[in-house]
Amino acid sequence: MTQTTLTFHGMHGEHERWHAEHQSWRSDLIRWRQEYESAIDHLRKIESLLAEHEKALRDHTGAIDLHETRQQEHERRMQEFLHDGEAEDLQRSMAEDHRRQGELHESQRKTHEELKKRHHQRMALLALLNGAIAELQ
Question: Which phi and psi angles does 6 have, rounded to 5°?
Fold first, then answer.
């Protein structure tokens, strides 16, 4: 088995090819590093959006709890007034309060539907992201 000895000219040619390949690799690495940094920025944005979404869920839960408490208090007062045979002015006052509670309820319904839509969209996108992450592992 004989092995050909490379000449200086042949070695120089290989060095030039290797250098060119190294330059190409460095270019790839610079691009990949930029893509990596962009991906990290996107993950931070996703984390921030999820934190905002969590706050929206907590706020909406609190608003529903408060509305439910007001509704129960209104119902309790209404039952007392019915039982005690209170004046008609009180009924009008409570009817006005009830109307405002109805407007609040409609507003919360709209908020709930918007939150529901946003939640489903975000969870669907995160499911895709989770699938992609699973494939990366």
Answer: -70, 145
Name which of 32, 29, 30 is nearest 40 in CA terms. Answer: 32
What is residue 1's predicted lDDT score, i.e. its pLDDT?
Answer: 60
**Encoded amino acid at 31, one letter:** R
Whole-number Cα distances in Å, 136 to 13, 33, 131, 132: 38, 17, 9, 6
What is the per-residue pLDDT across 22-34, written as a single tens digit (0 to 9) for each? 999 999 999 999 9
Q: Over the stretch 6-54, which tens digit does the pLDDT of each residue have? A: 899 999 999 999 999 999 999 999 999 999 898 898 889 889 988 999 9
Amino acid identity at 71 = Q
Residue 77's alpha-carbon distances to 42, 63, 96, in angstroms, are: 52, 21, 14
Nearest to 98 by CA among 84, 81, 115: 81
Q: At what angle do helices 88-136 and 8-84 cross, to 10 degrees?
A: 160
